[in-house]
Input
Amino acid sequence: MKTRLNICDGNVRIPAINWVQTVCLGAFALVMSGCSMTPPKTFTFQADVPENFTVTGTANYKPAPGETCIAPSGEAFTTGSLFFKPEQPKTAHQVEFKVPLTDDDHGCSMVLRGLKLMIEGQWGKRELDMSLASAGFSVSDEPSALPPATSTPQTQIFNGQCQWLFRTVGPKRFIRKILKCRALDAKGEIQKRMIGGRLHRDQLADSTVKLVLSVAKEEEPAVGDNWVKFPTGWKRCMGKGLDDRYGFCRGNTTDFKPFKMPDGRDCTVYPNCTE
Output
């Protein structure tokens, strides 16, 4: 995959953060033809992001119809990417960036084919106490069933929910967490599919695509038949013994083993630690 940053006046810029009025076509195209004074059409991506989460994006492009893209090396290429990684606080916030519908890489016209999102959640105090999940939007060339986009900005809203899944790792059975993110339907019910959907190219110019992201109130085990739920919390099944790292319950709902919280506490129930 070919990754590209725009270059203008000798300064490298990530388009997601500082999209300037004058868009350059890269150092090679700059020498050949200079900077274009007409910026490409864009749509605005927004996301309502929960506390301790961030959302970043990668816009992926393909050659426009009839185009054959050739790099300075003489090799053909069929993909291009622009990255969107704005700084984000740990508190709940909204992230926003403008996504160009077209790009020009080494003089080759390219069109947007999709936007991939990376959702990062932090579950602990350490830098490595995090997990990733992905979401994405594809761009369809099929005409939309809706009327063509007008001068009135349109907003498409997508809803998604992330949930923390817990498990134990290692001989001391430390708690670790995995992030699982799925789409929500119009009724707010969780779906099996990933967050995102299909966007129609003829509806995108000057529109807004908004993701409303939430976090499930309750955590669940990451591995089935490892834990038994009680009114006081989840208990870790004994399995074949304390050294059994798999520790499947297999119908035994009376024998359990302790585990350690990320902060080192010895616990018997999760998440309350003690009964």
